[in-house]
Amino acid sequence: MFLRSLIICCYLMGAYWASYHFPSMKMVFYPTLGAFSFLFMHRVDNIREIRRIIIGAIIAVTMGSIFYTISTGAVSFFLTALVTITLIQFFKWNAAPILAVSFIPYFAHPVSMWALPIAVLVSLTGLLVSIWLIGKVEQLNWYVSLSGKITQARLQIRTPFESLKKEI
Fold it and tell me: How far apart are CA 113 and CA 168, in angstroms?
């Protein structure tokens, strides 16, 4: 899990750095990307499910952008939420960040209707590549051996502290 956390945090740092330093990439980083990262980190073995969630997120943000372009008011926001929740239930996308990503246009105020969907596509594709990389590294023999040794060492260190914790 440490490797997963390390790679995901590096990816998030890179996305934040790029969005901060390059105005054209301003929308590549958004807080919901962290939620997607955490969700995907626990589904490394199920790339197919991750792809379904990414497609759902792109559909949701595109729909949110369209509704935002039509009207920036509360009714449009309500319709975005209603339609997104309906789509999540219908397609059985088990990912709450999809709803959150559909609201981004209402807070980011994109210049173009397509700017945000493209940014979400780019950022989630980059996240998918990171997740794929994690899956490949975790299959390597030397990593499996190293991971087993680290786990054993952690258990040996943890046991004395657990007994101390119970006493306190």
Answer: 57
